[in-house]
Amino acid sequence: MSTQYRLSPGTAFVRRPHEVGLLPLDGRLDPDPVVIRESGVEICEALRSWVSLDDLVARFNSEQAPPPDEIAAGVREFVTSLRELGIVSTRDEPDAAESTARTDEPAGEVEA
Q1: Do 56 and 43 form a contact (C-beta atoms < 8 A)?
Q2: Cα separations in angstroms, 55 against 2, 4, 18, 50, 86
Q3: pLDDT beyond 50 at 75
């Protein structure tokens, strides 16, 4: 089993040119928005559905990219920081029967 990650249900996703704003709507009285730029935008786009760290790292592998170990460390650190902020949820990779039963979705997207 591998761990999968996605934006937590209740996270508002605001897309702007060249950046993404994330706002945890988990009942905190004064949640702070998180603004993501550069390669973090692509990671956040991928986190709109369940994805493993290996899948995220594979998105950045190319001839011009840093070595895969560096990419993996950076992606892991970024996703961990979002998880600590309550913006990303985790689950163990489900069996096929479980994957069709899940319906929790992020709060929604706003075009800015």
Answers
A1: yes
A2: 11, 9, 22, 10, 21
A3: yes
> Is the pLDDT reported for residue 72 higher than 80?
yes
Q: What is the dihedral of CA 15, 19, 25, 28, to 10 degrees?
A: -150
Question: Domains in the chain, ordered, with CATH?
Answer: 3-111 (3.90.930)
Tokens of 6: 């996605």
Q: Can you tell me the distance from the alpha carbon of 18 to that of 33, in angstroms, rounded to the nearest whole number?
A: 16
pTM for the structure as a whole: 0.71
CB of 7 closer than 8 Å to CB of 90: no
